[in-house]
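Kindly review both lines to help learners:
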Amino acid sequence: MSAPLLKYHILPTARISIDELRSYIVRTFGWETWRQTSAQLQETVAHIRQFPESGHVPAELEGFVDDSFRQAISGKNRIIYQVRDDTIYIHLVVDTRRDLLGLLQRIVLRLL
């Protein structure tokens, strides 16, 4: 018998990053590519919910935050998430080629 799926919560920073990703993909590659990307992201989230420890700590965050922050690769994107108790908190969904530290700095500056 498999373990129950963990709950998940998509944080506002992730919602914004998903909206930005969608806009970029639709503008550059079209709606069909976005539908494929979206389905792949949903599959990856389902996998994370079942196997939350399968992701690894992003190299950019090693030593910066505790090991509860992890990433999962989904096609050309990465999902940055945190495991707390019985819930997965999705913080960001970004293209693997983006500068993660630069993006995090811009997010922090927006919050100040």
Q: What stands out?
A: The helical segments are 12-29, 31-50, 100-111. Residues 31-50 form the longest helix (20 residues). The longest strand covers residues 87-95.
